[in-house]
Amino acid sequence: MVRDLDAAVAFYGALLDMEIIARDRWRNPAPDADSAVGLVGSSADGAMMRGSSSYLELWQYHAPDREGDDPADRGAHELGLRHLAIEVDDVRAALDRVVELGGARMGEPLGYDHSGESVYCRDPFGTIIEFMSIGSSDESLDEL
């Protein structure tokens, strides 16, 4: 969920080399959409993006009004879905790219015994992203 769908599409398209493969939208009244998402009086625009053998679905809701706090104020320790983890070849370059595109550092890369690294940062919308690399290990993420 993002506040500005166009900005999020531009950010993730540039960061992850993704392209839009579909768009969706609904406007109130939309009882079928409301039933599916568990809301009343909802309106939204969405984009499905594809790249690097993965997909990312982004939504901007126009209604109902938000009631919760800002995700940018929540830390990595809070309950619920807290971050998106992405395996990259170069953690430091990916972190620099997030900052270049308007995101923010949360810390500095942490190295591991097998020469892999990981770091947390935020996209411009408050979502925590973890970049990780396997390093020189012959293991894949499936085996760690």
Quick rundown:
With 144 residues, the protein is an alpha+beta fold. The protein contains three helices and eight strands.
Count of extended strands? 8
- Coarse shape: elongated
* Major sheet description: 5 strands, mixed
* Low-pLDDT segments: none
Q: Number of helix segments?
A: 3
Structural class: alpha+beta
Termini distance?
30 Å
Highest-level CATH class of the largest domain? Alpha Beta
- What percent of residues are in strands? 25-35%
Number of domains: 2
CATH superfamily of the largest domain: 2,3-Dihydroxybiphenyl 1,2-Dioxygenase, domain 1
User: Which CATH architecture of the largest domain?
Assistant: Roll
Q: What's the helix-strand series? A: HEHEEEHEEEE
Q: Provide mean pLDDT, rounded.
A: 90
Helix content: 10-25%
Rg is 17 Å
CATH fold field value of the largest domain? 2,3-Dihydroxybiphenyl 1,2-Dioxygenase, domain 1
Task: Explain what you see.
The protein starts with a helix and ends in an 11-residue tail after the last strand. The protein folds into two domains: 5-63, no CATH class; 71-143, 2,3-Dihydroxybiphenyl 1,2-Dioxygenase, domain 1, CATH 3.10.180. The protein has helices at 5-16, 31-37, 91-100, and strands spanning 19-26, 43-51, 54-63, 83-87, 104-105, 110-111, 117-122, 128-133. Strands 4, 5, 6, 7 and 8 form a five-stranded mixed sheet that branches. The chain is α+β, with helices and mostly antiparallel strands. The chain contains three helices and eight strands, in the order αβαβββαββββ.
